[in-house]
Amino acid sequence: MNSKDIVYIALFSALTTALGLFPPLTLPIGVPLTAQSMGCMLAGSIIGAKRGSIALCIYILLIVIGFPVLAGGKGGLGVMLSPSGGFILAWPLAAGLIGYLYEKNLRSLTIIKEACFIVLGGIVLVYAIGIPWVAVFAELSLYQAAVGTLFFLPGDIVKVILVIFVTRLIRRAYPSIDIKN
């Protein structure tokens, strides 16, 4: 790992924190709707699987240590042991999957492929981990937890569109960013 990798990793950890400055909207099941889930989508699509995953792991470490880096100025181990903890723990995996798919398809990317990659990693994978976590920590059935998270989908689709736009913009402006590391 070179100094450029470290800078990218730090940048995307900080970006995920900055996305938390937008006020959260807390849903009835105790999980806040925030812009921070875009951090894993952007990290994977721009800096790749390895660096994106590391950036989000560092971000989670900051949360666990107690830094107030989550939306609403929250942090600490208690947050990770709450209904939203599973979604947050899924972010490094989501960045890794999105980054891997981008890396393997960089020369043949289309908007449709990008949307599929980001939806698969940033929504499907995150929900697959987050929904059971909500069920356990909110003492709900899996069905109730899944239905409760349906409120996230419209916002997540908007995030996917924004991430595609930002990723394409950054790739055009900074072609020297090498996604493969």
TrEMBL record:
Major location (coarse): membrane
Transmembrane segment boundaries: 6-31, 52-71, 77-102, 114-136, 142-166
Membrane-topology annotation of the record: Multi-pass membrane protein
Keywords from the UniProt entry: Cell membrane, Membrane, Transmembrane, Transmembrane helix, Transport
Compartmental location: Cell membrane
Highest taxon of source: Bacteria
Alphabetical list of InterPro entries matching this protein: BioY
A Pfam family per the record: BioY
Family statement drawn from the similarity comment of this UniProt entry: Belongs to the BioY family.
Protein name listed in UniProt: Biotin transporter
